[in-house]
Amino acid sequence: MTSSAITKAPPPMSLLAELTHRCPLQCPYCSNPLRLDPRAGELDTATWMRVLDEAAAMGVLQVHFSGGEPMARPDLADLVRHAVSLGLYTNLITSGVLLNRDSLKMLSDAGLDHIQLSFQDADAQEGERIGGMAGAQAKKLEAARLIVEDGLPLTLNFVIHRQNAERVPAMLDLAEQLGARRVEIAHTQYYGWGLLNRDALLPDRAQLEATEQAVAAARTRFGNRLAIDFVTPDYYAERPKPCMGGWGQRFLNISPSGKVLPCHAAESIPGLTFPSVAEESLEAIWQDSPLFNLYRGTDWMPQPCQSCAFKEDDWGGCRCQALALAGQADATDPVCHRAPAHDRIEQAIAERPETPPAFRYRRYSNTI
Ligand code: FES
What we know:
This protein has a nine-stranded mixed β-sheet, with helices on one face. It is α/β, with parallel strands linked by helices. It is 35% helix and 12% strand. Mean pLDDT is 95; it is low at 1-5. The structure holds FE2/S2 (inorganic) cluster. FE2/S2 (inorganic) cluster is lined by residues 191, 243-244, 247, 263, 265-266, 318-320. Residues 191, 243-244, 247, 263, 265-266, 318-320 line the site of FE2/S2 (inorganic) cluster (FES).
């Protein structure tokens, strides 16, 4: 056996296919990068088909079709059908505003396994203000109704922040009323657009605790009828999260123009070279690219991570958050109470303004 065979990385479990950055919504916490890929640079259908072939061949199990709004791509059903033919589990992550009976039938006939539908709020007016799209809520409610009628498993996703946290009980009721099987109550993550809008989004501790209580009460009330996932805001967490299950270990993300990334925010880290599916195979990128090997495993870790008993549980936390708060991507995630830069988290909470500033919406004209 060669040494490269000994050190071969296990294949990723999931691939996030960001088909486009175009989207009718403008959510100020969007996970897309601050510099959005233009339509002209998007991969064509044939290249996405080849990428799916390569993903299946290397052992990927799940493909999440995302964006922007992936339903803006007319070839979405063809890509789903191809992924299904390769034995991949297919999930569509959508805002629902472009979904209608015909487009849903095409996806359902293509074999789509699951839909994750995002809502910005349970309150229509507030949801449309947060998402920056008038008329969105009625389209989302109709999308949910059609999906459940079709029989496709539905997960609702709500991103939580200081301007909608009080309505988490209403969000949970809405998920149950719409017939969702699962709901994600996910507090905002603060990098990219979320970091840019942090003062407008970061809840206080009392708001966080109220959301935790609402989720606990709904779990009792709904039992097995509705599975509830809760994502705590990093800034109030006890320990850093194992971001992406560890850099280059379980997950890869392909941008609309074909860049292959270990996480959706990796482009915020300066000085890195991002490999492209237009130039190399997915397997070569996953195994051999400097990018995917940069923070893989534990060798790269500084102290106190290096001597920490949890280093293979949290994998040092999030590299993009370390960069955003400590100024270095290879620093210990400041969420950790032992991190040298932990005071940046406390400072951000202490300096949170009483009145939230206006949103800086995610749109091409605000691209940095
Ligand atoms: Fe990039 Fe966490 S988002 S490592």
